[in-house]
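User: I'm new to structure prediction. If I give you an amino acid sequence, what do you actually give back? Let's try with this one:
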Amino acid sequence: MNSSPLRKALCALAFAGLSGCATQTLGPPNPDDPLEASNRVVWEFNDTVDKYVLKPVAEAYRFIAPQPVRTCLNNIFLNLGDVWSGINSVLQGRQVDALNTFGRVLLNTTMGLGGCIDIASETGAKRIPNDFGVTLGVWGVGSGPYIVLPILGPSSPRDGVGRLAGLYVGQVEFVGLINDVNLRNSLYGFQVIQRREALLDATDIVDKTALDPYSFVRDAYLQRNRAQVAGNNELAEKLPQYEDFEAAEVNDKSLGIPVKP
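Assistant: Good question. You get back a string of structure tokens that encode the predicted 3D arrangement of the chain. For your 261 residues, that looks like this:
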């Protein structure tokens, strides 16, 4: 009898834990990643869960749902996320970013049919992703070491706190709008599937081209996070956002990360 995907994932985690001390890196140690051995254990666990659970479901969703429907739903989720981004821009004292973000939300919500159509991007108003982890960085809180969280992926102690704040805000928002617990939880699950589907092409590129996918994602994450804290939106938008399944175009050459020949 075949093992369940969850059992396979747990077995992979146990095996990775036994072999973690022998993990070889493909380059010099990264001072931002002192926990690399344990991070790679969690990375392997996440990769197994993704391979046997998240990715197949996302691929099935892509097969069933037409592209216009997927794009519409993705835009709606991103439009809702822009509200939290705008709030964090205010907290960071970046009023221009806040005005641009709230302007995007207003335009897409009204003229874009509730965010289904990203009219703002079509008119040249670029999205400025933001969260409370970036806000803490702007306030002078150090990020701490790079860590890989189970299921959630790349993070740091500072960004972990930021995620908790974002999760709390999301919970409050959904509780206020939807009283049906089952429906609310179903929407959370669907959001994960939808975001994973949006990452399918990006992760396929990483798997096919990156010499070491772990280092690829880590370096992209760290560069993007620093660019956000520094307010370098042009650089940040070029780097993929792997930590919450929203990916920009992957450009491995511009990142200077080794790729397979």
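You can read the tokens as a compact description of the fold. Here is one thing that stands out. DSSP finds twelve helices and two strands in the chain.
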